Amino acid sequence: MIQLIYDGTYEGWLTAVFEIYEYKFQDVVFAKNEASAALLFSTHHYVMTDEEKANRVLSGIKKRLSPGGYSDFYKAFFSDLDEIEQIMFQFTKYALASSKNIEGDFSNSAVWDVRKATRLTRREAHRMEAFVRFKLTKDKLYYAIVEPDCNVLPIIESHFKKRYADQRWLIYDAKRKYGIYYDLENVSTIELQFNAESNSSKYLAEICDEQGEFFQNLWRVFFKSVNIESRKNMKLHIQHMPKRYWKHLTEKIPTLK
Where is each DUF4130 domain found (predicted)? Predict the structure, then answer.
């Protein structure tokens, strides 16, 4: 067994796939950033992300998939499902070995599993596009904290860049300890440690723009006013807006005192 230890990026995974073929590795398992202690007798192979190697694998995959099929394949990588790298590698092997497009062959377990992973990522990305709530800081930066089930920031960044092109913003994934920052021109990935009490009244009062809090309170009032008490259906409400998202939603955070 050979552990391929890569940096956790999509390009790093593509490089690892290239090196499997380059070195003719047979029995492999992928590990992000560090070796897995569960595989005591495995051999370690450290993968250094290489743009040229990654692009060669990427080119081969794209030639065998439709544009939509490749887009789905890419999204699957960010699902954070267990062994998604291994599943995608099996899919890649099948695609590269076939003379036909294989993306609709759901009799193949890897194809079906990639499809399921894509659905998870797509659903979570859609929710994040709907549930991100920005707060305005005193230095005029709009920031939002999210904790998605899937690693969707790379998927949703183009949506927010188009929608909020005229303002600086930061979306921070508290679960994975990194964020995407837009500076009015480009989106960049940043790593930082956010305040653990970032939603507390005291913390928000210290960093938030006073006018920003005024408009957040207006949103809370509006949200409350459009809810008809006699028609309240909490089961349906939670189905569309699961409770795990509530702590970062403006309408669910009490008004600052």
Answer: 83-251
DSSP H helical ranges for the chain? 10-22, 51-63, 67-77, 84-97, 109-131, 153-163, 201-207, 210-225, 234-240
Closest CA to 160 of 137, 143, 139: 143
Domain spans in the chain, listed from the N-terminal domain onward: 2-125, 132-252
CA distance 138 to 26: 55
Query: Of the candidates 61, 54, 6, 56, which has an alpha carbon nearest to the alpha carbon of residue 29?
Result: 6
CA distances from 95 to 81, 88, 91, 103, 206 (A): 21, 10, 6, 8, 54
| Bridging pattern class, strands 178-182 and 187-191 | antiparallel
The answer to whether the pTM exceeds 0.85 is no
Mean pLDDT comparison of 106-115, 175-184, 233-242, highest-scoring range = 106-115
8 Å CB contact between 150 and 76? no
Residue 30, H or E segment: strand 28-32
Residues contacting residue 67 through CB under 8 Å, at least 6 positions apart = none
Residue whose token pair is 């904790």: 147
CA pair distance 257, 246, nearest whole angstrom: 20
pLDDT digits (tens, 9 = 90+) for 177-226: 999 999 999 999 998 776 545 554 444 444 454 554 543 454 344 345 54
Whether the CB-CB separation of 17 and 57 falls below 8 Å is answered with yes
Return d(Cα 182, Cα 169) in angstroms, integer: 5
Q: Which two tokens stand for residue 164?
A: 């909020």
Q: What count of residues does the chain have?
A: 257
